Amino acid sequence: MRDIPAVPDHDIELSGGALALDFANTVGGTHVQPTHDHLRSYADIVRFTELADGLDGPTAKRLARRAEQDPRRAAAVYELGIALREAIWGVFSAIASGEAPRDADLALIGDAAAAGRARERLVYDRSGVGWSLPADGDALERPLWEIASSAADVLTSAELDRVKECASDTCEWVFLDRSRNRSRRWCDMSDCGNRAKARRFQAKTRAARV
Fold first, then answer.
1. Domains and CATH numbers, the chain
2. How far is residue 154's CA from residue 17's CA, in Å, rounded to a whole number?
3. Of 90, 89, 85, 109, which is closest to residue 101 (Cα–Cα)?
4. Helices in 25-70 by DSSP H: which ranges?
5. Is 6 helix (H, G, I), strand (E, B) or coil?
6. What is the pTM of this model?
7. CA–CA separation, 142 vs 19, rounded Å?
8. Beta partners for 28?
């Protein structure tokens, strides 16, 4: 098992613009030296995926019950989920920096996405016909399939060139910059953006006193 950082003092934030990017952003600080982690158990992964609209409520409850019935399997899926999170962050961080992502990271995302899509079935509802995982497809890996599918969708979309990484030196969150002039620099202006403004103001104040 990995060394889990401190318990976060705030709730999960969804500012990435896509399920997979929000998943990558569930660690605070940097991925090399995280200050806290919102995903400390399999139940946390299910909770995140439901909060980010990757799972509906009934499915999340079924998965939680199955995890309680098979805690060893749930722990193994949790570790796979953390590996998937690091792969997703690694791929999008590289792309945001204009670098080529690691083949191993792409393979992990692709395998998880393919595993889920292989189980999808065409279903009909009031909105029409579409692909969906059936209720009997509630394997414990289901949240990871949804997250990996989101990552694959972004990677193969026209929005890939809008992927950015927060400009803060102490944050590595990734996000889709959907601003009209593509000028967004921060994961959240009220958080990293305001801290950067405060540091610039303090530096100007110190410089004026010299």
1. 19-209 (1.10.3300.10)
2. 10
3. 90
4. 42-51, 57-69
5. strand
6. 0.87
7. 14
8. 36
Q: Spell out, as residue ranges, where the chain has pLDDT lower than 70.
A: 1-2, 135-137, 189-191, 193-210
What does the alpha-carbon distance between residue 99 and residue 66 come to, in Å, rounded to a whole number? 40
Q: How far apart are CA 89 and CA 83, in angstroms?
A: 10
Share the mean pLDDT of the chain: 88
At 22-75, the pLDDT tens digits run 999 999 888 888 889 999 999 999 999 999 999 999 999 999 999 999 999 999
Strands 27-29 and 163-165: unpaired
Q: Helix count (H) and strand count (E) of the chain? A: 7, 6
Tell me the three state secondary structure of residue 176: strand
Token pair for residue 61? 């409850």
